[in-house]
Specification:
The complex is a heterodimer of chains A (53) and B (192). By secondary structure, chain A is an all-alpha fold. Chain A is 77% helix and 0% strand. Chain A is built from 2 helices and no strands. Chain B folds into 2 domains: 11-91, Rna Polymerase Sigma Factor, Chain: A; 96-192, Arc Repressor Mutant, subunit A. The chains are: A mainly alpha (53), B mainly alpha (192).
Chain lengths: 53, 192
């Protein structure tokens, strides 16, 4: 029968769609709030560990 | 250590992984506001624990591990809210008909969102983010065999769910199929 064939086609189709779902999110611009958060954390580090550890 | 000779700080590399973290978070939460909250929490936790990161190891896998641990611990804490979100998702599942008759990404995302979270995460990590089975297993803290079986079950379930929307194998091609979809994804074969 064509079961295995079907399964391969489905697997391929599913992977394509998984990648599309993932990629569409990857392609989004990262909102500014994340950059602001990273900047804040860096700033805290600079203040906190200014004299090494 | 002087600033100008300091080795590459893995903290500086976090920014490169933000898009992938957001994509992974979205596949777990199925909600982009919740995904962004999750990523923010992950960044803060990662920052506090950077001394535990081994330089030279896989930063993305390390961040993904923190992200999913945060997700699951939030899930336990906010069980009721999450169930409400699930309910809201379920009620919108069959709302949108197709415009072009093909297996549109929106439909895939809808059926994908119905999978158990362990299967979603395994499928996204290996099928989409490009992680190996080993990396995914390590990220999720389970055996490789567990990841493989989650992926297999997830694929089988996706194929099953997608097939319900689908008369001739892979693509939605006719109005009979749309009628099935519009009727709410019931198990119903429409011979014609």
């Amino acid at each position: 029968m064509t079961k295995d064939n079907d399964k391969d086609r489905w697997d391929e189709k599913i992977d394509q769609n998984l990648r599309k779902v993932f990629q569409s999110k990857l392609d989004e611009d990262v909102p500014d709030k994340f950059m602001e958060l990273l900047a804040q954390l860096r700033e805290q580090d600079d203040q906190g560990s200014a004299h090494g550890k | 250590m002087a600033n100008d000779v300091r080795p590459v700080d893995p903290r500086e590399a976090v920014v490169e992984h933000l898009p992938a973290m957001r994509a992974f978070a979205a596949s777990l939460t199925r909600n982009s506001a919740a995904a962004d909250d999750l990523v923010q929490d992950t960044i803060v936790k990662a920052w506090k624990n950077f001394d535990k990161f081994k330089p030279g190891t896989n930063l993305r896998a390390w961040l993904f591990t923190i992200l999913r641990n945060t997700f699951y611990s939030d899930l336990r804490k906010k069980k009721r809210e999450v169930e409400d979100v699930d309910g809201a998702m379920a009620s919108t599942l069959s709302e949108k008909p197709h415009h072009d008759g093909r297996l549109a990404m929106a439909d895939f995302e809808k059926v994908f969102a119905e999978l158990p979270v362990e299967q979603r995460e395994a499928l996204i990590l290996v099928g989409a983010s490009g992680m190996s089975y080993e990396e995914a297993a390590e990220t999720c803290g389970v055996a490789i065999g567990t990841i493989k079986s989650r992926i297999n079950r997830g694929r089988a379930r996706l194929a099953e769910l997608l097939e319900l929307n689908d008369d001739d194998g892979l693509e939605l091609t006719d109005s009979a199929t749309m009628a099935v979809l519009n009727s709410g994804m019931q198990v119903r074969k429409t011979g014609h």
